[in-house]
Amino acid sequence: EPKLLPAIQDALQATIGYEIITQKQNYCILKNVAGIYEQEFDNLLRRLFLMVISLGEESYEQLRLNAFKDISTFEHQRDTIEKIMNSCCQILNTTDRSSKTVSKFTYLIVYTLEKIANEWLYALRIISKNKLNLKREALDYHNEVAKFLRIFYENYYKKETPAIVLLTNQKEEL
C-alpha cells in the first residue's frame, strides 16, 4: 500500500543493511544488502553491550567533571545502539536459535540494553536542557549502574553461577 512506504523507509533508517531494491506503486521489495546473518549475532550483541556501557561511562565522566555541554554525541551513540538492537531482534526473530528459552532470554537482554540506553539519554536530555548539576548521590548511582552493566557483560559470557548470584545480590542493592 503506497501510504506505508514512508513508514517502511523510516524503519529502514533504524536498521543495518536493509534497503529497498524494488519500488512500485503498490509494493516494495527489501533486501539484506549488508550480509548481516545469524553468524553475526554474537558480534552484534557484544557491540550492543559495549555501546551501552560506553554511553554510561562516558556520560558519567562528563557529568562528574562538569564538562557536559553537548548531547549530540550521545544522540548519535543512541542511534547506533538502536540500529544494532534492531538487527539483533531481526536475527532473533527470523532464525532458529539453539533453543527458544535462550532466544527469549537473549531477546530480553537486548531489549533491556536498549531500555537502559533510552533512560540514560532521556536523563541526559533533561540535564542538558535545564543545565543541571547532579548531586553526588545521583552521580554515584549513575556510576554504579554503569559498573553493574560492565560486570554483567563480563559475566554473561563466562556463565559462572557464583558470579551470577553476586550480580543478583548487587542488583537488589541498586
Strands across the major sheet, in which order? 1-2
Number of helices: 6
Strand percent estimate = 5-15%
**Topology pattern, helix = H, strand = E:** HEEHHHHH
Main sheet, how many strands, which sense, barrel? 2 strands, antiparallel
Structural class: mainly alpha
The strand count comes to 2
Percent helix: over 70%
Model description:
It is built from six helices and two strands. The protein has 174 residues and is mostly helical. Strands 1-2 form a two-stranded antiparallel ribbon. Strand 1 and strand 2 form a beta hairpin. The chain starts with a helix and ends with a helix. The model has no long low-confidence stretch (mean pLDDT 82).
Task: Write a brief structural summary.
The chain is 71% helix and 6% strand. It has helices at residues 5-13, 41-64, 72-94, 100-130, 136-158, 161-173; strands spanning 18-23, 28-32.
Give me some keywords for this one.
mainly alpha, two-stranded antiparallel sheet, 6 helices, 6% strand
Describe the secondary structure blueprint for this structure.
Layout lengths: L4 H9 L4 E6 L4 E5 L8 H24 L7 H23 L5 H31 L5 H23 L2 H13 L1
Antiparallel strand pairs: 1-2
Helix pairs in contact: 2-3, 2-4, 2-5, 3-4, 5-6
